[in-house]
Amino acid sequence: MPRVFIFQVPLKGRLCRNDKDCEKGGWDQQSHGIKTGSCVKFDVLRKTCEVSAWCPVETKRSPPRPALLAAAENFTVLIKNNIRFPAFNYIRRNILPNMNDAYLRSCQRGGDPLCPIFRLGDVVREAGEKFSEMAVEGGVIGILIKWDCNLDRLMQRCLPRYSFRRLDEKESNRTLYPGLNFRYAKYNTVNGVEERTLYKAFGIRFDVMVFGQAGKFSFIVLIIYIGSTLSYYAMTTLIIDWLIGTRCYSADVAQNFSEKKVESVQDKQKCVLCVSYVDENNIRLVKISQKNSLQDITPISVQSHKEDTRHLGACVLLPGVSMDQDHQPPLDHKSDPAPKSSPPAWCKCARCTPSSLPQEELCCRRSEGACIASSPLFQQLVLRRSLLEAVLLYRDPLSAPAGPGHTALRHCAYSQYISWRFGVPPSNSHPAIPSCCIGRVRGEYPSPDGKYSGFRPTRMVSMQACANGEL
Question: Which residues cross the membrane (predicted)?
Answer without folding.
Answer: 219-244
